[in-house]
Write a structure and sequence with these properties.
Keywords: Amino-acid biosynthesis, Branched-chain amino acid biosynthesis, Isoleucine biosynthesis, Transferase. Its EC number is 2.3.3.21. Belongs to the alpha-IPM synthase/homocitrate synthase family. It catalyses: pyruvate + acetyl-CoA + H2O = (3R)-citramalate + CoA + H(+). The protein has about 525 residues and is an alpha/beta fold. The protein folds into 3 domains: about 260 residues, Aldolase class I (TIM Barrel), CATH 3.20.20; about 70 residues, no CATH class; about 130 residues, Alpha-isopropylmalate synthase LeuA, regulatory domain (Double Stranded RNA Binding Domain), CATH 3.30.160.270. It is built from 17 helices and 16 strands. The longest helix is centred in the C-terminal third of the chain and has 25 residues. It is elongated and about 90 Å long. The chain starts with a strand and ends with a helix. The structure holds acetyl coenzyme *A and pyruvic acid. The site of acetyl coenzyme *A has 17 residues, from strand 4 and helix 4.
Length: about 525
């Protein structure tokens, strides 16, 4: 048996966070992934809240979960209502889950001001509801809402509410830092007192991230003997979110030697899955699972990690399914360039003229406003050009763009003409587009297709414009970042100019040029 169980509330408390909505089918898919990953409890929702959650539990019963136990969430019975007659408690039982989690009030202020009842009735509500659910054969988790605030206000009152849950037969009492304002030292101290005063019922922890201490507080509780951690994948949840399980899990497993999941390597992919399914962007700087969690940019760091990865990495990235990234920028040393060149199959010597020239060119261009971090394609071209492993596929003679807006209600027209040379042959093409950049992209492709039919495979996936230096207002330098793809891979290219059309042109041309260079080099290999 595990010494600490993982209780996931992504499907309940996670959905209380702004911008995190899940359909019933999304919830089912996430539940399956959580089960496969080895989470012990999955809180699916609150049946007393909405029809979607009622339906979820009906469908989830058919899931054939291999490991996790499903929990339905709700509150204690209402004040002055018999527990058998409480509609919300009935729905909790009708959800037919092996586990039911109920929350109740620990803070006297909440009892008198929010519930507007007496301390005695509140304790009866907790005790009766736990007992009733136990009598119906459920494993009962009792979430002590506002426990730490309640304890700081009156330890005796807060402990008496826990005792009421224990008397009602709760299997675990979970201390909640509902407002997220408690410090790890306080959590530790209070948890130790709970352990001493209620020794026969295991305690767990449920924290919120309002002081960015959700994870630290959960770890402090485990240090004090906590047996369950409640949290969400990627920390989604009410306000600033809940304790982030994608951080807690590797901390427990890799730093504290507490085995909680069988395949930690699946962590990053689980994190991306939940982002994707909820249509949220991935948080690049997320510890352990973020894209940049093991990305090295400073030249000195890159030099060191090449010699010894753990010189700047606190764990092996592969242990959580992540990988080391090396970035090239104005902060690079030759080591960054050497690694990139090696990856391109053109190894370079440290101290060689080529390595020095490439590094100098990167620094010069970054000073002009280029950024190679997200433009690996442009960096690849820069290296090939410097090493004379590059054949120019075409020469631009001229391009022209126009945008015509009619006052009589006609659709505006965006037009581009492009004149290029491939060897001695000229091609002069005009095309229209949704905007001038689109027209330019279309005209260029049309002009090239006769010479390079393979460019049919390339499409433009993303286009971003950023002002490099804002002080020149509309004459400021712009950086355009383009992502192109061929269905198998994608690559970023960058262009910089005071003119956004020219910056776009540079980035688009590099995107197509790189594709042609790669094809040519693959053909030679
Ligand atoms: C800390 C947490 O995250 S707890 C979970 C919070 N999550 C949610 O609220 C999401 C789901 N909630 C809902 O769908 C709705 O709020 C419902 C269906 C549960 C309740 O809706 P309504 O009956 O319209 O009540 P409303 O939301 O306005 O007010 C909550 C009521 O619950 C009572 N209540 C609050 N906590 C408890 C408790 N632990 N035990 C019993 N009653 C409680 C409040 O006193 C209030 O009743 P009152 O107005 O008679 O005093
Ligand atoms: C129960 C719960 O979600 C909280 O107290 O934060």
């Amino acid at each position: 048996m595990k010494s600490v169980s993982l209780y996931d509330t992504t499907l309940r408390d996670g959905t209380q966070g702004e911008g995190f909505q899940l359909s019933m089918l999304d919830k089912l898919r996430i539940a399956q992934r959580l089960d496969a990953f080895g989470v012990d409890y999955i809180e699916g929702g609150w049946p007393g809240s909405n029809p979607k959650d009622i339906e979820f539990f009906q469908e989830a019963a058919k899931l054939d979960l291999k490991h996790a136990r499903l929990a339905a969430f709700g509150s204690t019975r209402r004040a002055n209502v018999a527990v058998e007659d409480d509609g919300q408690v009935k729905l909790l039982l009708e959800a037919n889950t092996p586990v039911v989690t109920i929350f109740g009030k620990s803070w006297e202020l909440q009892v008198t001001e929010v519930l507007r009842t007496t301390v005695e009735e509140n304790q009866a509500m907790i005790r009766d509801t736990c007992r009733h659910l136990k009598e119906h054969g459920r494993e009962v988790v009792y979430d002590a809402e506002h426990f730490f605030d309640g304890f700081k206000d009156s330890p005796e009152h807060a402990l008496a509410t826990l005792q009421a849950a224990a008397d009602g037969g709760a299997d675990c009492v979970v201390l909640c830092d509902t407002n997220g304002g408690t410090l790890p030292s306080e959590v530790m101290q209070i948890c130790m007192q709970v352990k001493e005063r209620i020794p026969d019922t295991p305690f767990g922890i449920h924290t919120h991230n309002d002081c960015e201490l959700g994870v630290a507080n959960a770890i402090a509780a485990v240090k004090a003997g906590g047996a369950q951690i409640q949290g969400t994948i990627n920390g989604y949840g009410e306000r600033t979110g809940n304790c982030n399980l994608t951080s807690v899990i590797p901390i427990l497993q890799l730093k504290m030697g507490i085995e909680v999941v069988p395949n930690l390597e699946g962590l990053q992919s689980l994190s991306h899955f939940v982002d994707d399914i909820s249509n949220n962007p991935h948080f690049a700087r997320a510890p352990f699972v973020g894209r940049t969690a093991f990305a090295h940019k400073g030249g000195m760091h890159v030099n060191a990690v090449q010699k010894l990865a753990r010189s700047y990495e606190h764990i092996e990235p592969g242990k959580v399914g992540n990988s080391q990234q090396i970035l090239v920028s104005e902060l690079s040393g030759q080591s960054n360039i050497l690694i990139k060149a090696e990856q391109l199959g053109v190894p370079l010597e440290k101290g060689s003229d080529e390595a020095k020239a490439i590094l100098a060119r990167v620094k010069e261009l970054e000073n002009e406003g280029y950024s190679f971090e997200a433009a690996g394609g442009s960096l690849e071209l820069l290296i090939l050009r410097q090493l004379e492993r590059y054949e120019k596929p075409f020469e631009l003679k001229e391009f022209h763009t126009s945008y015509r807006l009619y006052r009589d209600g006609h659709q505006p027209v965006c037009e581009a003409t492009v004149k290029i040379f491939v060897g001695d042959e000229a091609e002069y093409i005009v095309d229209e587009g949704h905007g001038v950049v689109n027209a330019l992209d279309r005209a260029l492709r049309k002009a090239l297709i006769r010479f390079y039919p393979e460019i049919e495979e390339v499409s433009l996936l993303d286009y971003k414009v950023r002002i490099v230096d804002g002080h020149d207002a509309t004459a400021a330098k712009t950086r355009v970042l383009v992502v192109s793809g061929d269905g198998e891979s994608s690559w970023g290219t960058v262009g910089v100019s005071e003119n956004v059309i020219e910056a776009s042109w540079i980035a688009i041309v590099d995107g197509i040029d790189l594709f042609l260079q790669r094809k040519r080099r693959a053909g030679q290999a």
